[in-house]
Amino acid sequence: MLLCVLLGCALKVPELPPASIDIQPFRSTVDWSSVEEEAAQLLSAYVQVDTTNPPGNETLGAEFLGQVLDRAGISYEIHESSPGRGNLIARLEGDGTEKPLCLLSHIDVVTAEPEKWPAEQQPLSGSISDGYVWGRGALDMKGMGIMELMTVLLLKRQAVPLKRDVILIAVADEEVGGEGIQYLVNNYWDYLDCGQLINEGGLGLKDMLFEGQTVYPISVGEKGSLWLKMTAHGEAGHGSTPRPNEAPLYLLEALDALKARPIETDLSPAMETFLASVGAHKGGVAGYVMKRPTLANRLVKPKLMDNPLTRAAVINTVHLTGLDGSNKPNVVPSEVSALLDCRLQPNVKPEEFLDWLKTMVGPQIEFEVLGSQQGNLSDWDDPLYRALARAATENEPNSVAGPVISVGFTDSIHVRPKGTKAYGFVPVRLSAEEMTGFHGAQERLSVSELGLGVKKLYSAVLEVSVKSDTES
């Protein structure tokens, strides 16, 4: 026991037992090379549908998906949350043994700078070249939308007997305000009744922690958000004479105080499980350390704090994202402001975090809440999580999957309060260079990874949805 205290007891790494049902009969007759080609052509065409947000025009994208579904004999509905902001729902019916499984994607994409893209691979080109599908949305998240669409098409073509409804959902406005999913949650959630849901989130990262190892983080939760406008008030004056009671000075002091705030770091249970899973797969000294939370906190946490992405995963962040005030150098304004994007661990309430921030600044500072959302998470001791992890690493001995809490939030944050278990996972592998395409220039998705992603997603959906012989 003393040795366990000194060195740290090993965290039990969740094992992935074999699937409880044989899904191979529903995969073996699929021509996967044809599926890859079909998926690439569909993604190419989908990218060419301009759903840049703002303004969105997601109804155009919903109609594109609807046309594909209609050709397959699958009925669908489009509900507009506001004019032009379409949200699609399509359902394959099961026998109702279990609550529906929902496959969620968003139709809108962020803006792009065409001048920073190759001439032949522009943001709305949908070009298929050099082994990639190019264009805005290929990664975020029309690519996943096509994987989900293809999964529904395969379930239909293979006449898979389902023990639950499988529902395809594609929504508007994820990138800006979340209008689409909130509209469905408020108006159609009893009709959808999603027991479990797959959405964007984690994806495969080559050489993430160790060279030669691919890690598949599966998002089981999201940090909350607190968006603030912090305004400083002071005396207006002339720029030639600095004075101690000026708003810009008060704002700088407040920003310095927030930057110097005490920062607590702690590995969440999800992060502990993730590190333990990666360590168990890696083995050796690194594996020994990563499987022991006590040692991981001492030895691994400093490394996590050195990387901006992993640092954001283990702390509550306060990020200065903008400044506003006078635009004349010889005028001291009576008020200036800063925009702050705070991302909070799921157990931190936004209002309590704001109260804490207020204790660090002077009376000349006021805060305006521009938006807030409590973080949340789903239990990863779940058949769908295990099916996703199994499908992700199948036939990939140098890969491992584990649960994480996303540093940003997705539409999943709106459905968990309804009792839905939501998991974020796009089943593709990306290099660090390919990752720069998210919201950046030259966004693209490998055709081969797209095809493999369809197979992985289809396999996971089969595992938790197909009706076994004993249930017929």
Descriptive account of the structure:
- This protein has 472 residues and is of the alpha+beta class.
- The protein is 36% helix and 24% strand.
- It is built from 15 helices and 18 strands.
- It has helices at residues 2-7, 32-47, 58-71, 142-157, 179-192, 247-259, 269-282, 284-290, 293-306, 308-314, 350-358, 383-393, 412-415, 432-435, 447-465; strands spanning 76-80, 86-92, 101-106, 128-129, 132-134, 166-171, 196-206, 214-222, 224-233, 237-238, 317-324, 331-332, 335-344, 365-373, 376-377, 399-406, 421-430, 444-446.
- Strands 1, 2, 3, 6, 7, 8, 15, 16 and 17 form a nine-stranded mixed sheet that branches.
- The protein is globular, with a radius of gyration of 24 Å.
- It starts with a helix and ends in a 7-residue tail after the last helix.
- The model is unreliable at 1-7 (pLDDT under 50).
Shape: globular
Q: Roughly how many Å is the radius of gyration?
A: 24 Å
Which regions contain 5 or more consecutive residues with pLDDT less than 50? 1-7
Mean pLDDT: 93
Q: How much strand content do the residues show?
A: 15-25%
Distance between the termini: 51 Å
Judged by helices, strands and strand pairing, the structural class is alpha+beta
Write down how many β-strands occur, each being a DSSP E stretch of 2 or more residues.
18
Largest sheet: 9 strands, mixed
Q: What's the helical proportion of residues?
A: 25-40%
Q: Give the number of helices.
A: 15
